[in-house]
Amino acid sequence: MKLFNKYIFSSLAILAVATTLNAQNTRSGYFVDDYTYRFQMNPAFDNSRSFFSMPGLGNVNVSMAGTLAVSDVLYNVDGRTTTFLNPGVSVDKVMSNIGNSNRIDADLNLTLISTGFKALGGYNTVSIGARSSMGVRLPKSLFSLLKEGVANESYDISDLGARATAYAEIALGHSHQIGKKWRVGGTFKFLIGGGFLDADLHNSQLNLGRDEWTITANGDVNANIKGLSYKTKVNDRTGHRYVNGAEINGAGIGGFGAALDLGAVLTPDKSWSVSLALLDFGFIRWSNNVLASTCGEKTFNSDRYTFNVDDDAPNSFGKEWDRMRDDLTALYELDNVGDTGSKTRMLGATLNTGVQYTLPCYDKLNFGLLNTTRIQGAYSWTDFRLSANIAPVKCLSGSVNISEGTFGFGFGWLINLHTKGFNLFLGMDRTLGKLTKEGIPINSNASVNFGLNFPL
Questions:
Q1: Predicted structure pTM score
Q2: CA 134, 351, 114 angle in degrees (round to 5)?
Q3: Looking at residue 309, what is its pLDDT?
């Protein structure tokens, strides 16, 4: 297991350096009247009033989503909490709880300052915010290998990876009514990169036959963080210098970029509306890319070793065993390739598609169906949300909703208090359930969104 730890732990150590926790606003507020930050989910949306935010508290959104629950890796054995590796937890019980592809995502979206106002024939917004996200992929075969040892003949842990990004944005938005049925909008964002990390085990196959073992490994860790460098250590046995950590000397801007949000809303009559938005279509050009890599595919084959009982022979048992151990270790020792220069990376774009129906007999109640899809390669996800939204009085509106998607079933809600001069909202796309003693959701799914703003 130490062979895999060299790759896994070096990747996750760098991830910890890079990550503070691209996130969405609460999707529970997409169809809610006078939810101040609907324009961040579709730039065609406007507000009935101008507003300015409480600095740092206008819109705070923290979320965690996963297909791997805490209860899948922690168990109670004889009254004590232990990991799935405990012999008291059966292999069958552990593996029945683990999916084929396991994900854990964590996101932060913080609006530092924001304002909205009517001008130029439409509604305009100006925002400054900070965003960051983290995603981890863990294949089922990794848990099988850790739990069973080498009980099976083959393991494929190629889907193992981690990604993190953090940046600040300055956003300028405008929405405009076209005729009676259409409203369109767009937001231009200037991006300031804080850091990016992508750790990926492209290929790792273990074929453990009775007569022959073949193991392959191919992995990279790309980091775009100003001042970051890899720590290295020399293997005393082989003399090979490999990466065993990372450090940041100084801090600074990692890069610059730009992105667009585009949206449209069609209202054919008083009861129905259809909306579509493409968010975060853009890039950041990072000034440096620090690479740690296996430098291609490495292969270990047990057939290349022959053991001689003669202690004086070049391939004596002791010498050949040491050579085999060194070659196994070298499989997951990443080389410090260094700074490979600037690199342009696309953001994870998001597509929002919504349909809303307002009751003709009671226009203060509407129902909405929203699909949100994040397009981000191996870290893509989708979410379908059905909501009932009500505004019983002018100063109060809210939503209750259920969702189903990549991260399973969820229940969400939002309460939005909006009087003249004061707006406070609180909501959750995924309501908190049972927590561990450390405050971590048992099912790995939770979100909190709140904000304080001042309508004019």
A1: 0.86
A2: 70
A3: 62
